Amino acid sequence: MLYTKLFGKTKKETPADEVSKSARLLIQAGYIQKEMAGVYAFLPLGKRVLDNIIQVIREEMEAIGGQEIHLGALQNPEIWETTDRWSDEGIDVWFKTQLKTGAEVGLATTHEEPLTKLVSQYVQSYRDLPVYLFQFQTKFRNELRSKSGILRTREFIMKDLYSFNTTGEALDTFYEEAQTAYFKVFNRLGLGDKTYLTFASGGPFSKYSHEFQTICDAGEDTIYVDEEKKLAVNDEVYTDQVLQDLGLEKENLKEVPAVEVGNIFKLKDKYSKPLGLTYTDSSGVEKPVIMGSYGIGPARCMGTIVEVLADKEGIVWPAEVAPFKVHIVGLGLQNAEVAEKAQKIYKQLQQEKVEVLFDDRADVSAGEKFADADLIGIPYRLVVSGKTSEKIEFKARNETEAKMLTLPEILAEIS
Amino acid sequence: MLYTKLFGKTKKETPADEVSKSARLLIQAGYIQKEMAGVYAFLPLGKRVLDNIIQVIREEMEAIGGQEIHLGALQNPEIWETTDRWSDEGIDVWFKTQLKTGAEVGLATTHEEPLTKLVSQYVQSYRDLPVYLFQFQTKFRNELRSKSGILRTREFIMKDLYSFNTTGEALDTFYEEAQTAYFKVFNRLGLGDKTYLTFASGGPFSKYSHEFQTICDAGEDTIYVDEEKKLAVNDEVYTDQVLQDLGLEKENLKEVPAVEVGNIFKLKDKYSKPLGLTYTDSSGVEKPVIMGSYGIGPARCMGTIVEVLADKEGIVWPAEVAPFKVHIVGLGLQNAEVAEKAQKIYKQLQQEKVEVLFDDRADVSAGEKFADADLIGIPYRLVVSGKTSEKIEFKARNETEAKMLTLPEILAEIS
User: Which residue of A has its CA nearest to B96?
Assistant: First the structure.
């Protein structure tokens, strides 16, 4: 991609109305733009990052047997009344609207109810189970406040996976697999080191649920971390009894702010029972299907990556997430020979299937180009100028030293 | 994919509450399921088809310079009041809802206004143009009636591209390129032969807009087709004056029902003017940006493909759209040797990166499996049974004769 053609350039000013670091950097670097409080547009750079995060999550969900589906946002109240979640006491962030016929409908904040109903049309016998279904679908949540950029919005794509098993033991086994898959996701997103499996309130049906909390100053949550055991406890369940349950010692725990980047719940028969999702076991007995649910917000992950990995120069993307792998900075492109040289390297990298952003602006200073490259945060920077011969100046975004490398050496370095 | 593991199996009965052929077939074959009137869930098979259609459209939009973005569904009334489209007189299919603060917001039926506003933050000079932006985004339309399955729904993913040029001539040139790109899309989707560039009402700013209408019994529109000239006229502009304008003769036109699978509009300065999207030309004069908009509904295309190409046995997918390329029907799988043979062919095809659905059910008759394969409509069927030796029975979905081929011959045939 040529930078002169890219829609969504860097801005000189930090947006004044954003308090979160990630929103400020993402807007300034040209990834996102605010449409209204809690609603953001993803510009081409931002859409690429979001898609990369979605692809990482998709691969890990498919690896544990997940099949991708897509449900509607518009919701029929009837299903939600069955589980007492249509009223504000059940879910306090509904957006509700009306059909032309006058009938009330809602915008889904989550999908346990409609999916449970859907699955009941296809599952009758133990032979139809297990089933693991997931989607990347736009959720709407009528949040009272929304001022953390893309960390908490009124509308966002959520990956929600739901598991359907015959027994509690089968759910337990899958739940462990999902936990492992979640850590694979956060490792690939560059958040692994700072992300803790965190015990949180389980609600009426399980003792605990689990959150994946990433230590981060912008976090709205407070957790207590045991760094050695790689475990944490959310402050909502931070009691002596719980610590004893989990074998944690108060003196080993550190209080830190954190962002909830994922959560997983054992739902058991909470939704299958009222909604009539049952199966017949091998001896002909009808039983409720045992469920779990597993969420990750790709845009919240995107914001958290920026919060955690950015330095004072700008964003630092991990390789799997970055909008492009290589950022070519062309200097002195008014000179036709230099411009041609830079174009040639750009083309060669593209032929090698390397995703490249080429800063081909002819009227911008070297200093401004370097500052923009740091702000945008692509993993590898190449500088092509009048001085470039066989060897090209190569620098990783998260290193300070540049090296002089040939193109084959660069390809080896970044692969 | 093993058919025993696939979520969303074929059903014996046709859904009684669906009037459109495509909805009946897609539900019966396990592609979609109705959630409420005008809202459908996409099951794994249906999600794969939808994604394939989206990918075809994405490739053709990128080929003409489109950059992908993603805007919010939630809409601030203020922008739409500027263009007189917040009221029901402006757009009569709004869903409206309220923030917790009490402020009214809408769900986007289209995105001219918010995108025009967004682009105005990045475009100042003629050097920032042209810009072509597109998205695959969920639109909400409060349709009074919705009974044509996925041909007209209250919620659907739409590809909407918007063009931003300096002059009317530049818009005209891009508009032609978009037309060509649209025909490439419909050709790849298997709809090319039956899809006509159709003159329709242009509104106050252009004499005509253009629709892409696919001849189809389920269509809600009536068009008049000149088969030789590959042109059509929508009945809303079917007058002697218009025919004369377009050089069409009444006696060469055939009246047919059709589905509008795409539409393109020259918006000119209709939105840029009220919303203040201007640029400074090379002589320093401020001018409104000249716009166009270009829509395609991937799910409507999916329904239309089924309407147009299905035969009395079931769905017939074109290769680029099909959920899998090959459908292996295993017969007599109770026999371990046969099961192993079928598994081996399944694995070999997967190693060759061929997408395969393997009907590995051991307790279903040959007749039922063949009927399901025809209903599901995957392009190539392989039959593996006790009789299978080096040569495997191979049949294309749209042919009647089977052939006996070796695996390498099959790979050559389908590539």
Answer: A97
